[in-house]
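TEACHING EXERCISE
Course module: macromolecular assemblies
Task: Read the component lines below, then compare them to the predicted structure of the full complex.
Student: A.B.
Group: 4
Components provided:
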Amino acid sequence: MATAELFYKIVNNTDAHSDSEHIRVYVDSNPSIPDRTAAILHGGKDPLPAMRESLKKLISCGADCIAIPCNTAYYFAEILEQESSVPILNMPAISSAECARRFSGAKAGILATDGTLAAGIYQTALKGAGVDYVLPDKFQQEAVMRVIYDGVKAGNAPESYRQDMEAAVEGMAKRGAEVFILGCTELPIAVKELKLQIPYIDSLEELARAAVKFCGAELK
Amino acid sequence: MATAELFYKIVNNTDAHSDSEHIRVYVDSNPSIPDRTAAILHGGKDPLPAMRESLKKLISCGADCIAIPCNTAYYFAEILEQESSVPILNMPAISSAECARRFSGAKAGILATDGTLAAGIYQTALKGAGVDYVLPDKFQQEAVMRVIYDGVKAGNAPESYRQDMEAAVEGMAKRGAEVFILGCTELPIAVKELKLQIPYIDSLEELARAAVKFCGAELK
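Instructor-supplied answer key:
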C-alpha cells in the first residue's frame, strides 16, 4: 500500500495538464522482501538480496533515480548506494530538511518502527538538519507499532487503531513534540484515514516530491 | 493516474493480513505512449511501438500476466497478444462478463472515449457477454470527452466537470441505460470524486480483481 501511495503522490504532485507532462515511473512492488525491522532487531532474514534484485530490475528498465517507500529500509541504503549506478533518494534526509524549512525551530516527535528507531535513522537525519527531537516512551512506541502492523499493514478499519494513534501523538506532544515526523510509510495512511489534525511531515510525500523534481517535471 | 489507481485497486482488492500475502506488481507507467484515441481516429502517432517496449520490460522483470489500464488500448491488444509470451488480461471482456453477472438483463450505457466507441471495443465485448447497450448521442459524447480530457486527465477540480458528467449520464438513462460501463479508466475517478449515485461497472476495478485472481492471491 505504501508503494501504491508513493506512486499516487508522484502523479498528484506533478503539475501536468496532459499525460505527456508526467514522469515515467517504474515500480517493482515486491511484498516478499523480508521485514526490515525484524532483520535489524531480531536477526530476521536479510532483506538486502531482494532489495538488490529490485534495484537491478528498475535500473535495467531505465530508472534514473531510486525511491524506496520504506523508512526502515534506509538502514540498508548506504550499502545499496555503493552498488547502484543511479542515485537513491534519501527519504529520511529529505524529510528532515523539509521539517527544518517548514517548522523552523520546532521540536519534532519521531513516529517510526522499532527498527527505524533502533537504527537511529531519523535521529541522525534530524540532527543533520539541525532539528531537535523527542522519542516516544515504551508504551507510546508499542501503540505506534500496533497502528503500523495490526492496523494499516493488516488492512484493518481505521477506528480499530484510532485510540493507539491518538495516545501516541498526545503523549509525545505533552513531552514537547510540536511537529510529527511520519517516519514510517504506513503512518500517513493512518493520519489520512483518521483525519487527525496535527502538524506533520509526511516522509512519503516528501519522497514523491523529490522524485518529481529529480526527473525534471513541474511540481504542484 | 489510471495506472496508479489500478495498482491501488490491486492492493485494496487483495485479502492480505501482512505484506507477504500481496502479489508482486511491476509497473511501467509511460506517459509518453501516444494517445490511443488520436491514433485510431485521426491517424495520430502509432502507440504500438511504445506499448511493445513496455510489454517487453514487464515480461523481462518477471510478469506472469499483463494488465493495461486503458480501455482504448485494447484496440491494439490483439496484435500485442500474438507477440506476448504471457496472457494480456482483457479489460473490456472481463468488465462485460461482470456486467452480465451483476446486472443480469439490464441495458448498459457505454461511457468511453471516441476511440473506444469508434473501434467498437465495448459494443463487441458486451455483445459477446449477451448484454444489450445504449450509445451516447453526439452531445452526450462530447460531454464525456470533456470530462476525460479537460477534467480528469488535466487534473482539474471535480466541480469543473460535474455538469458534463451528469448531463451525459442523465441523458443516456432517459434513452434506456440502466447500468453504466465506465469504459475509460479516467471515469471511475470522476464518479468517485463527484460521488455520483449510479449503478456502474468500473472496468479498472474489474481488471484489478482479475489480476489478483490470476496471480493466485485471495480476493476481498
